[in-house]
Write a structure and sequence with these properties.
Butyryl-CoA Dehydrogenase, subunit A, domain 3, alpha+beta, 4-stranded mixed beta sheet
Length: 479
Amino acid sequence: MGAITGYEFIDRIDQLDTDIWLDGQQVKGPISQHTAFKGLLKTKEALYDWQMLPSNKSIMTYDSPTSKELVGLSYLQPKTKEDLRKRRKMMEQWARLTCGLLGRSPDYLNTVIMSFASSSSHLIGKENCFPEHIQALYERAREHDLSFTHTFITPQVNRSQSYFETSEEPISAKIVGKTKEGLIIKGARLLATQGGLTDEVLVFSAPKFLGDPDEAFAFSIPSDTKGLRFLCRESFVGGESAFNYPLSSRFEEMDSIVVFDRVIVPWECVFFYHNVEVAEDFFAVSSFHPYAIHQVITRQIVKAEFMLSLAEELVQTINVGEYLHIQGKLSEIIVGLETMKALLDKSEHDAALDQWGYMRPSLAPLQVASTIFPTMYPRFSEIIQLIGASGMVALPTEKDFQSAIEPDLTRYLQGATKSAEDRVKIFRLAWDLTMSSFGTRQTQYERYFFGDPIRLASHLYKSYSKDGGKDMLNRLLGS
């Protein structure tokens, strides 16, 4: 089959019988037609169509090593630095189509599954581990261009470091039994972005693992598996009008709680189970972090470029570019953007083959980038708010411009270089990015994309070599 078109993606998702709940109601009918999901799915449809355009196939796809069909390039297991650059260029294409606003564009989980398969040899010979199942999923996903969400965060019942769950009925998803068919899972996991809107859901133990063998597992199952439910948060789609809600109408990614009601996970879908050591070290040993962060930083750079262009558009629209404080604010975005670009380039320049023969981007610069962006992004958002000032508050709608008050709007809301309608479009976009429910979710999302920023900084400190200047220090102290 190979890489798919947007029509094939939508048709496949609509055929799923997924148990999705939103605002107290079970979602019925084709998912792609539901008001909360259709903007996102239409955007993803465009991504799949983009990869199949004749002019884009050489950038977006490659020949499968098994079927020889064209498959998505985000599944490519890189063997050279040039392969890494090919992957990055492909990911940039999709990121630009979404302005970097789609945190779960298909290439993210494709990359994760590719990284698992590239490191599956680590599981060979280990108890209750099935590396061949990881490889089988990778090949099936690649050959059918499957889409995925994932979930690994446990419910926040009690975040104390000493808390251990003692309830009779499991809260965190756990293994509660085994049958000849597979594992039985009961409980919940949090924050599956696009949960229920993909072919499958990838489930694995949380990075901060407490050592309960019943929580030590990893698997992938279809989204419409019996007993699997997706409990959605409130939709942040403000409305279908691209004038009023230029971003949320297109890029709103639903987040959901995933409930496992005695779900049977077939053995062929299980990667490992009841192995605490593997659950604790697989992500550290595997290429998950280098490849996943490489994809994320690529997207975040595109997003920062989008924010810089939007900030400059606001500046030009109301003619405030001569003020030094405005120039200083935009320079902050430029410095952050160029820092991210340099770190991404360094990760590729310093890439090296791992023990299994795959070219991993250097992790240290990627860790630095993933540590600073959660701090930079809220500041970029604030800069856009500060430039827009009071102009971000009283914004008319599309229907206002189609009503009897249109002459008033045309006269009183014009910009220095834009008509009133164009000025309002720009300011509504800035509002939707930074002040709407969609925009504030974007800020929180980037703050915690890879977890607690304090923990990220701590891990960077512990893992980074600090001996670069030790010879100089010793020489001075010795003298």
